[in-house]
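U., I forgot to send this yesterday:
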Amino acid sequence: MKRKTPLLLIIAAFVLFATQLAFVAEALGKSQLGILAAMLLLYFLLPLRKTGIQTNEGVYVEAWLGELVKRFRFQRSWLSMIPRYDQHVRNKVIHLVDVGADPEVFINLAIDDNNPVPTSTRVDADIPISLDRMDTENTRVSLTELRAISYDKMAVTLDLHMNALSDKAAKRAAWRLAATDQNYIKTTTGNSDGRTVAKKRITPDDLVMMSEVVAAPYDEGGPDWPEGEGVAVLDFRHVADLQKLDQHFDKQWRNAQTGELFPYNGWKIMKFNRNAKYTKVDDAYVLKAFGAAADEANDLHSSLFFLPQRAFAAADAAPEMFYRMATNDPELRSNTVGFRHWNIVAKKKADGFFQLVSDKV
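Result:
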């Protein structure tokens, strides 16, 4: 295999050549040669400066990873509402503190030496949470594309990997945010949906019921959500249920131009096709394991209801790129590239998440 000349030696050779040429030009009194020397120097050095940092094999890893960091988004409208804590990530772990109870507010409190303002101590607990490690399936790409600094060429491969990462992150988020406490799991109350394994439909009354549940104040044992800030992420089957129940659905529930669902009874309504699924075991609803195989006879689909400020999202700023050049693959003679990225969406407080499950009829 032909050995590459080190970049510094090439630069040094051209600098020496240009310097010597300039001396010759001065001695001969021919300014044109001096100009030619400068032009040669710029011609060879500027392209090297524009390309940025590269590895010994000519792969612009820093550029690829920099673009990956910029492109990664939790690409669902409901996920974009969740506060980001990227700046708190250290060594693929994020440290959160669960804030204590809200302080009591006293009205017209009589204050004197014998009756001071009551004081309570806020105790914050450090909660270390490891980010999920996500590895993309490797992709074979052309030698030109792998070595190219052109963002147009990088976009082809990056888009494939970023879309795969974003899709998986969204599915993982819906599962992580799903309720597991039976107190936070409610069931639909409608008639049979008529499917092969019939389940109860969701109804507008169910959405009203969920509004009442989350609005209950703390002193009544409720989660005390702020009015109008809850997000309902409806399973596509639940959206279909509402369409069948209301013949004016598209006019009253959906923006005809954007396709977005209108708010209803204080809920920001979203749709997601990969919400968590449950099974029923001894009258309890059990969250299925992430990535578990579908079981049509026993799977129960659900919709997620959550308060964004009681969740958090974080992504690490140091992804990794794994690649193999065609020169190291004599059998297939192709270039292979893949990425690893750390991210997470999770709960800060469990009372910010409820699930509406469609049970069997």
